[in-house]
């Protein structure tokens, strides 16, 4: 609900009404300007007595790791190991964990013989 809107070159301002259960609706102009859609996330930030809503586009903080170069390199290495048949399967989780803790698991993917 818009009671007052001011728009300048770099600044948009809107007065919002807090409704039942703390809900507010974002004006269409803001949704369009920031390309926000239903289901998108906003971060609520309190700083120096002011409240800001910051759009979170793309990956959330918990998902950003997957886009990092280190993760992407590890994914590529895993894909190559799978293509070469350098994989291990286990009947259950306990067997897999036991194998990881054993001496047999050390550098197995880099050796020519698969134990």
Describe the overall structure.
This protein is of the alpha+beta class and about 120 residues long. It is about 25% helix and about 15% strand. It has a two-stranded antiparallel sheet with strand order 1-2. The chain has a two-stranded antiparallel sheet with strand order 3-4. The N terminus is likely disordered.
List keywords for this structure.
two-stranded antiparallel ribbon; 115 residues; alpha+beta
Percentage of β-strand residues? 15-25%
Q: Indicate the percent of residues in helices.
A: 25-40%
Structural class: alpha+beta
Give helix and strand order, one letter per element, not per position.
EEHEEHH
Strand order of the largest sheet: 1-2
Rounded Rg: 25 Å
Basic shape = elongated
Q: In whole angstroms, how far apart are the ends?
A: 67 Å
- Count up the helices: 3
Average pLDDT for all residues = 80
Strand tally: 4
Largest sheet, in brief, is: 2 strands, antiparallel
Taking pLDDT < 50 over at least 5 consecutive residues as the criterion, the unreliable ranges are 1-8
